[in-house]
Amino acid sequence: MSIQQNLLNIKSSLPEHVTLVAVSKTKPVSDLMEAYNAGQRIFGENKIQEMVDKWEQMPKDIQWHMIGHVQTNKVKYMAPFVSLIHGVDSLKLLEEINKQAKKNNRTIDCLLQIYIAEEESKFGLDEEELSTLLTSPIFQEMKNVRIVGLMGMATFTENQNQIKKEFTHLKSIFDKLHRRDGHRRDGLQSVSTTTNVDLQIISMGMSGDYQLAISCGSTMVRIGSSIFGGR
Question: Dihedral of CA 140/111/129/166: which sign?
Answer without folding.
Answer: positive
